[in-house]
Specification:
CATH topology of the largest domain: Protein Transport Mog1p, Chain A
Structural class: alpha+beta
Distance between the termini: 72 Å
Shape: globular
CATH architecture of the largest domain: 3-Layer(aba) Sandwich
CATH superfamily of the largest domain: PknH-like extracellular domain
Number of helices: 17
């Protein structure tokens, strides 16, 4: 190992090398932890303009606190004048490495992009642009799945390079394969340049190659970014829905679109397109925006007018506990046909006995579960207030993408893709029912939670598969009991939700209350049961002392419907 001395650290070895320098593994001599230290090359360290900008940018990055951004701890210079930056050590690989191994699938790719988008929305809201979005900067830790962590690295370095006009020993800032046209031409750029690069990264993660391969040299790649439309993912991957093409095409429009999408909007559209085969984002190429001052890197962009933070946190998620929007904010990840299903006619459900007692009887066909949902009148009788039902959808929810503690997605929200995706489910029907005349909202303890319920039925091939799914949920719900989770609303505001004790009613039915912090006595209750081959997954949000009983009765009423099906 080459010799390098960094004050306050014991260097243990080399983690990697690149055009900008070398990354070392080191022990922090003052704290009981190991860190990753990037020592920048002699070329970069010797440039006065870069050095000054780098120190400022490192200070900005060090102020970031977000679960999807690699923490910056310290920066300085070695005895021989090389710049270094100490960062959070992430135990794992990066998405670029995983791509070289051919290990990224479509579901994992969209999940990773969604996590990176959270980091970008956080930074963009503070006026900071990354400028080097690429799979190599997406650090991955933990096993693929709901518990995998994704962190975005290298905030600050790329912008400092851009300012100094350096090429980092042959590398370009905003690596050409992912560079937005305005970056390549030196025109003013804003956060949309990062979104363009995110679109390029998703294309590569889905297809295994960048959108414009360098078969004829770097110059041809630059010309393609400037003048060619985004290639179609579906052409390289016929197994993926064509709807994903429109999402990437909009992100990679040659001129930034007048309507400015956020990274989170891009990720949500990509998720919807992948699972439902539909998207509302059309590919558009519009005139570039009128030139204006560039986004500052040390100050946040002017905020839009907003309500006080406390009230906004409560209302922004439409009962932000579950991010289940009243008018379509509940992002759906659908499988198969995404056409709306007709609402069922009112029927009478027997609720006198626990109907989840035994998963017996012939399997309910997957195509017949939607008519088994309760009518609005039936749900109203359970909640004690009039409610109106929204569209019934046949897709699993993707809202857990906004949940920090994804290992607790199961007791947090009903019918989520992260929870059911490997369970062997065959069909799902979900409906959100909202209070017809919600009370006026107040602040703090006076905040009144609009009452609503989510009812969902998830069909499995047979009763044994449904029972196995329920049994597998028990240890997860037990482990997550009494934990406080964090949901990141669309404006990157953290909304804490505290889970309660797990109740297992006879049947069994899993019941767990949830409390929206700083919101008086308002709470939601999750309940999960099984009847025959169908999982019955519900949430009730109310300010009634009997909310837990209402959730259990909602499960029982749905179970009676399933049990009576022929």
């Amino acid at each position: 190992m080459e010799s390098v001395s960094i004050p306050g650290y014991r260097v243990l070895g080399v983690l990697g090398r690149g055009g900008m320098g070398t990354v070392y593994l080191a022990d922090n001599l003052d704290l009981p932890r190991r860190e990753a230290i990037k020592v920048l090359s002699a070329e970069l360290s010797a440039d006065d303009g870069f050095r000054a900008r780098f120190l400022r940018e490192a200070d900005v990055a060090a102020d970031f606190t977000h679960p999807n951004i690699v923490r910056v701890y310290r920066r300085g210079r070695t005895d021989d004048g090389l710049l270094w930056i100490a960062m959070q050590l992430v135990d794992g690989a990066d998405a670029g490495e995983e791509l070289r191994r051919g290990a990224l699938g479509a579901e994992r790719s969209v999940f990773i992009i969604g996590e990176v988008a959270k980091a970008l929305d956080y930074a963009h809201a503070r006026g900071v642009i990354h400028r080097d979005i690429k799979p190599a900067n997406f650090l991955l830790s933990g096993p693929p799945g709901p518990q995998e962590r994704v962190l975005l690295a290298d905030f600050g370095i790329a912008r400092a390079l851009d300012s100094a006009g350096l090429t980092a020993a042959g590398s370009m800032v905003a690596t050409v394969a992912y560079a937005a046209p305005e970056v390549l031409t030196g025109a003013e750029s804003d956060h949309r340049a990062d979104i363009y690069s995110l679109g390029c990264a998703l294309y590569q993660m889905l297809t295994g190659q960048p959108p414009f391969p360098a078969t004829n040299g770097v110059g041809s790649v630059m010309m393609a970014h400037l003048h060619s439309p985004a290639p179609k993912v579906s052409a390289a991957r016929p197994d993926l829905p064509p709807a994903i093409d429109a999402v990437i095409a909009r992100a990679m429009a040659n001129s930034p679109p007048t309507a400015t999408p956020s990274a989170g909007e891009f990720a949500s559209a990509a998720t919807q397109a992948l699972y439902s085969g539909a998207t509302t984002l059309a590919p558009t190429i519009r005139p570039a925006p009128t030139p204006g001052p560039p986004w500052p890197s040390t100050a946040a962009a002017p905020p839009a007018p907003r309500r006080p933070r406390r009230v906004a946190a409560l209302a922004a998620a439409g009962v932000a506990v579950l991010a289940l929007g009243v008018t379509g904010g509940y992002l759906l990840a659908r499988r198969g046909n995404d056409a709306p299903i007709a609402a069922p006619a009112a029927t009478t459900a027997a609720t006198s006995t626990p109907s989840t007692a035994a998963p017996v009887g012939p399997p309910v066909p997957a195509a017949q579960i939607a008519p088994l949902l309760l009518s609005a009148d039936q749900v109203a009788a359970i909640l004690g207030v009039p409610v109106h039902g929204g569209q019934i959808t046949n897709g699993l929810g993707a809202d857990a993408n906004m949940l920090v503690e994804k290992d607790c997605a199961a007791p947090w929200g009903p019918a989520l893709h992260l929870v059911y995706r490997d369970s062997g489910w065959q069909a799902v029907a979900i409906q959100v029912l909202n209070e017809s005349s919600p009370p006026a909202k107040g602040a703090g303890p006076d905040f009144v939670l609009p009452r609503y319920a989510v009812q969902s039925l998830v069909a499995f091939p047979d009763a044994a598969a449904a029972a196995a799914f329920l049994a597998g949920q028990v240890p997860i719900w037990q482990r997550c009991a009494n934990r406080t989770l964090t949901f990141l609303a669309q404006d990157s505001m953290a909304v804490p939700v505290t889970l309660g004790d797990l109740r297992q009613d006879p049947g069994p039915v899993l019941v767990m209350p949830q409390t929206l912090q700083n919101a008086g006595d308002n709470r939601c209750v999750r309940a999960l049961g099984v009847r025959n081959n169908v999982a019955i997954d519900v949430t009730v949000c109310n300010h009634d002392p009997d909310t837990e009983g209402q959730a259990a009765r909602l499960v029982d009423a749905l179970a009676a419907q399933v049990g009576a099906a022929r």
